[in-house]
Amino acid sequence: MPYQNGAQNIALIPGSNRPVTINNVNPGVVGASGTLANCVGNNGSLAFSQFYNNNNGSNMLPIFDGFTDVFVAEAVVQPCQLYTIKLVIADVQDGIFDSGVFLEAKSFGTGSLDVEINGLAIDGGLAEGCTEGEIVFSLPNPAEADYDVQFSVGGTATEGVDYPDLPDNIIISAGDSVVRIPITAYEDFLTEGDETILFSIQRDPCNRDTFTVVIKDNRLLKPDAGPDLTTCPTDETQLDVTLPVPLPDPPTFINNTPLALPLTNVAYRSEIDVFGVLPTELTADAIKMVCIDSLYHPWIDDLDIFLVGPNGQFIELTTDNGAEGGNGLGPDYYLNTCFVPTATTRINAPGPFAPGSAVPFTGQWLPEGNFSDLWDGTYNTNGTW
Length: 385
What we know:
- With about 375 residues, the chain is mainly beta.
- It contains one helix and 18 strands.
- A hairpin with a 5-residue loop joins strand 14 and strand 15.
């Protein structure tokens, strides 16, 4: 029967209009508990065994008796219109065998232009007379024809005075997927304060984003090598040059409000407002560490802890670790536990879960997820975490 509101099933077997079901994707023979009537005609088919992988009795992940090849589900849509994707999986008769659907991370979408600004300082600035930066425009796949990047430039900095003239047209050539535009800040030896370059870029037909580059005065002091000296060619002179480089302490944001966890199977949020951090677009250099000062619970391996960013992106910090720990003897702890991109040991070592002997969790760890999940996209640094 047709779906409501004009919906379509796009979970189809490649090259057919048949839905992905066990009656259609199978080893090509009737199962011991099945009937031929369920695998012929409109009820099913035995003709698609090439898409079925027998996993019974093997150690191959995932641990299911069988699984399909990777299928692509796609639909023709109208740009800038709102669509809903509904995911449904069900057992028709038995509840003994597990079923699952696995989705490739970040695979939803139509493919937008990605914009990255590289070479900026950790505060999002480009200092006058210092290292060159670059703007990188990239497509998810090579362009079939020349791709014209639609952009405009504004801000308080003056093109040709504070930074070089930018090209009038930016083209990603057919067959290529990336174009790089260098950008530098001219040293004018003036104390002007921060100036900005604003790039307004059409990332896809429905979305236009603004990216900010802050031009900063060169704050490095001139080195002092002492008074001038006259020496003979055969003499040796030792120079001692000290160059102080003032660096501000990185900002820290904390939620000190105690959070009780009275119920099971309930999500609790401990929100932290981050503000005034540059660059405003989240990058790999923006997060030094994420710490839990103190968290105790009588059943520590029941805790699933995630960090969720302002745009909904998230990273799995720790899940199901600590085994029984000190259960029955007292609460278990995450105490001064910091998740650090440069740490060498994952919190769930040796894997897949950390044993009870690891409790309390203290010190620096890698999270179970990958930090890159937080900034692998156009996400905001500032906002509610």
